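== Folding task for one protein ==

=== Format: two labelled lines per protein ===

==== Paired sequence and structure tokens ====
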Amino acid sequence: MIVVNYIQSYEMVKALETRGVSVKEIFGNEHIDLWARLQRNASIEEMTEYWRRMTKVSVSPGSGIVSVKVRAFTAYDASLILQHVLSASEAVVNDVNVRIWKDVISTAEENLKHAAAQLEGARAGITSARNRNSLISVESSADLVNQLIVNLEGRRLQLQGRMEAQLSNVSISAPQMKVLKREIESTEKQVEDLKRQLAGRKLASGEPNLADVSQELAQLQLAQNLSELQFASSAKTLEQVRFTSQQQLMYLESFLDPRVPDKATYPKSGLWFIVVVIGSVLSWGGAIGISYLVRSRLAD
């Protein structure tokens, strides 16, 4: 776990220093026995190793509860260190939460920017296609062309009616009949050109007809619709992430506050008394044995 590794790392030692708790001052006090205290010139590695010896961190596999014990040479120092260990651990957990949400929000913002760029490009494509083909709406342009075709067809029928009415009295080769024939042919050509603008073969100028333009605009409109959906989804995701970021993914809660111990754990007086007694008896026995051997050798 992050907290367990952090507590027994040199980073925790530095965090305590920033909080005004000097590990060197507390554990390197000259009043502490020479073999038990931290040396003043201790290196970072030695200080970290000493700190690990003075702290014990365990995790319950079932509940995930982290237990922290700190040893010091006074009850007040042990309680003070543990209080600041807890506050530093809470700070690092909060910092991890902030960094996680910062990365998530940054990713969501990048996705939104990308979606906005795609939408802008899709809209620009539609505008460019309309400007290139000099039209705003395919439907309105098609309605206008159809209306022109209807008008020209009506005029062609009128001209054909006049021509058929005059054929009974005037020769087909008469000048007025030739004029009517040219007008009918011109009208039919105009109708054919307008029909080609709607669909069919491309125009003589090489420009696309309305069917081709409609297909192109439909594809561009589909791309714009997809871009709008992507933009809306990205914006919604960013909003949800920002709202959810107010909550913590990880948290550290202390349900047992550090307290000043009533009784020292070390040194164990009874144990040391027994050790001293046993050591003294063994030393006394050894001394008697040696003296007996020396006297035996001298007597021989």
